[in-house]
């Protein structure tokens, strides 16, 4: 595993499976009376959020605190950034304070990569979503949720998602979640199909390791999981589809469509859901929708990532990682 | 997690100090000692420390069930994140912590491990226990005590006291993990990656 987590595409199959297995053990801590582990005691983690986020920030914060890290929250609003400070100066300020890791969300694609490779800081960088590029921990928690539901919490240990058919529906163009998921699911052996109106399919999608379809109804019957993406109104500055109603009719998931899915198949949503748009309330509240589970799994998965990146003297999986245990 | 290197073909210097039948006898004796010391083992909970301590814990539980005629709760306690050398190595893969359904509060917890050496594993286990509950008392059962303690920790039940030098390695192999039961005493190989 590398020192930073910038893109889901950087993870090897073994890295990803190690993260999912570790997350499975982290999930068991949530059932204990004291939901805390000492692994990151004395480490300082900064949550550097240049973009609004509730669940990702809270999820990271919960994960950091459960691992006993010292947490500093930095929101761009009302900070030195709103006074015109550059990313470089912010980074160097954090470095001077002695942080061990930076969890960064930024509106510009590539900001975490810049932070990690610029030499401005020594800290490990974890991408919590950058522009329309990547959101690797979301992809990991999605894969974790799929493995738990489709294979099983214990049966899934050590397993990838080989042969599972995953359909990702909606605003692929603006979705870093879709990009990260395509990369990670491909690495884990799953077959991914993207479904979107032609206007919301990005240029160059033919080079992605996935299929593309314009018809949701055709792929539902052969999907093990259907992942609905939020229609990102805040990033839509052009008319990508005629009306919201038309979008909901063609690409929204309602109970009639859900009935066409195989018995075991699950409905996923990274949140926040826009009920009535990409998903009806009925589907969102059904047993088969894992949206709430994904939130819980997000904490476990982020704990796993933080532990594997920061728990030792170097990231997990490096050459000396598998030495003998000293008694 | 893996303690496989140094075993098998590369162990021309390793000689067995305990064989399968010896291990079985030793575990039977420890089970009887637990029953004796705990006056019937009514509130005993066995917690094995991964990897091989877990199998020893399960074997001890089976023997205790034979002796007392009751099911003895048995589980596992992963100590990875409580190790004092966590920061000196890359993070290790976590093992399973499985606490029996009735918990450990007010019970007599017997920690089970294969080799007692520096005592640091047991210190970490005591810390881990602290986050899970408050036992009435904690005792320690080990298959082999090889000495060289670095902390004020001792075992309550010892399968075999094995005086060793620091240049030697002690390796426990169990059928569940390694395909056979044996304890091997060998010379440390040149690469000083870890000690046991």
Automatic annotation (TrEMBL), chain A:
Carbamoyl phosphate binds at residues 55-56, 105, 135, 138, 271-272. Keywords: Pyrimidine biosynthesis, Transferase. It catalyses: carbamoyl phosphate + L-aspartate = N-carbamoyl-L-aspartate + phosphate + H(+). The keyword DNA damage does not apply. Coiled coil: none annotated. Residues 163-309 form the Aspartate/ornithine carbamoyltransferase Asp/Orn-binding domain. Its EC number is 2.1.3.2. Residues 3-147 form the Aspartate/ornithine carbamoyltransferase carbamoyl-P binding domain. L-aspartate binds at residues 83, 176, 230. It comes from the Bacteria. One of its GO terms (molecular function) is aspartate carbamoyltransferase activity. InterPro entries: Asp/Orn_carbamoyltranf_P-bd (IPR006132), Asp/Orn_carbamoylTrfase (IPR006130), Asp/Orn_carbamoylTrfase_sf (IPR036901), Asp_carbamoyltransf (IPR002082), Asp_carbamoyltransf_Asp/Orn-bd (IPR006131). The keyword Transferase applies. Pathway: Pyrimidine metabolism; UMP biosynthesis via de novo pathway; (S)-dihydroorotate from bicarbonate: step 2/3. Belongs to the aspartate/ornithine carbamoyltransferase superfamily. ATCase family. HAMAP family: Asp_carb_tr. Heterododecamer (2C3:3R2) of six catalytic PyrB chains organized as two trimers (C3), and six regulatory PyrI chains organized as three dimers (R2). NCBIfam families: asp_carb_tr, PRK00856.1. Catalyzes the condensation of carbamoyl phosphate and aspartate to form carbamoyl aspartate and inorganic phosphate, the committed step in the de novo pyrimidine nucleotide biosynthesis pathway. This is Aspartate carbamoyltransferase. It comes from Streptomyces solicavernae. The lineage of its organism: Bacteria, Bacillati, Actinomycetota, Actinomycetes, Kitasatosporales.
Automatic annotation (TrEMBL), chain B:
It catalyses: UMP + diphosphate = 5-phospho-alpha-D-ribose 1-diphosphate + uracil. The keyword Membrane does not apply. GO terms for molecular function: uracil phosphoribosyltransferase activity. Its EC number is 2.4.2.9. A motif (PRPP-binding) lies at residues 109-121. Residues 18-161 form the Phosphoribosyltransferase domain. Transmembrane segments: none annotated. Keywords: Glycosyltransferase, Transcription, Transcription regulation, Transferase. InterPro entries: PRTase-like, PRTase_dom, PyrR, PyrR_bifunctional. Belongs to the purine/pyrimidine phosphoribosyltransferase family. PyrR subfamily. This is Bifunctional protein PyrR. It comes from Streptomyces solicavernae. The gene is pyrR.
């Amino acid at each position: 595993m590398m020192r930073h987590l910038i893109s889901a595409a950087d993870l090897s199959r073994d890295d990803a499976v190690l993260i999912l297995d570790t997350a499975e053990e982290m999930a068991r801590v949530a059932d204990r009376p004291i939901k805390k582990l000492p692994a990151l005691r004395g480490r300082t983690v900064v949550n550097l959020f240049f973009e609004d986020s509730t669940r990702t920030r809270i999820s990271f914060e919960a994960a950091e605190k459960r691992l006993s890290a010292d947490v500093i929250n930095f929101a761009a609003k009302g900070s030195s950034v709103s006074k015109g400070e550059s990313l470089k100066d912010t980074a160097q300020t954090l470095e001077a304070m002695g942080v061990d890791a930076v969890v960064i969300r930024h509106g510009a694609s590539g900001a975490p990569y810049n932070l990690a490779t610029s030499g401005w800081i020594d800290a490990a960088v974890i991408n919590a979503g950058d522009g329309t590029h990547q959101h690797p921990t979301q992809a990991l928690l999605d894969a974790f949720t799929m493995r738990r539901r489709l294979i099983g919490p214990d049966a899934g240990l050590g397993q990838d998602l080989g042969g599972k058919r995953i359909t990702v529906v909606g605003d692929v163009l603006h979705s870093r979640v879709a990009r990260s998921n395509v990369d990670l699911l491909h690495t884990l052996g799953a077959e991914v199909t993207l479904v979107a109106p032609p206007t919301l399919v990005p240029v160059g999608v033919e080079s992605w390791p996935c299929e593309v379809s314009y018809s949701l109804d055709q792929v539902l019957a052969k999907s093990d999981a259907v992942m609905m993406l939020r229609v990102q109104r805040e990033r839509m500055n052009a008319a990508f589809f005629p009306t919201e109603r038309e979008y909901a009719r063609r690409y929204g998931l309602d109970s009639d469509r859900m009935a066409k899915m195989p018995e075991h198949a699950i409905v996923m949503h990274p949140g926040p859901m826009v009920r009535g748009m990409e998903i009806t309330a009925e589907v969102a509240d059904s047993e088969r929708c894992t949206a709430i589970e994904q939130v819980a799994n997000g904490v476990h998965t982020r704990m796993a990532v933080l532990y594997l990146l920061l728990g030792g003297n170097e990231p997990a999986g490096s050459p000396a990682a598998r030495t003998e245990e000293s008694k | 997690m893996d303690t496989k290197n140094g075993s098998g073909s590369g162990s021309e210097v390793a000689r067995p100090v305990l064989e399968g039948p010896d291990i079985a006898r030793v575990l039977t004796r420890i089970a009887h000692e637990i029953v004796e010391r705990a006056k019937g083992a009514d509130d005993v909970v066995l917690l094995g420390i991964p990897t091989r301590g877990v199998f020893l814990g399960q074997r001890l539980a089976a023997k205790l069930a034979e002796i007392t005629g009751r099911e003895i709760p048995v589980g596992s306690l992963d100590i990875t994140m409580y190790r004092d050398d966590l920061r000196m190595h890359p993070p290790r893969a976590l093992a399973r912590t499985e606490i029996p359904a009735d918990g450990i509060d007010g019970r007599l917890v017997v920690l089970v491990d294969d080799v007692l050496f520096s005592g640091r594993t047991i210190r970490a286990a005591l810390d881990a226990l602290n986050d899970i509950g408050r036992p009435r008392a904690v005792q320690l059962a080990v298959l082999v005590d090889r000495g060289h303690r670095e902390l004020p920790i001792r075992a309550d039940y010892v399968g075999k006291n094995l005086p060793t030098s620091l240049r030697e390695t002690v390796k426990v192999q169990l059928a569940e993990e390694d395909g056979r039961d044996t304890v091997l005493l060998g010379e440390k190989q040149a690469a000083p990656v870890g000690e046991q």
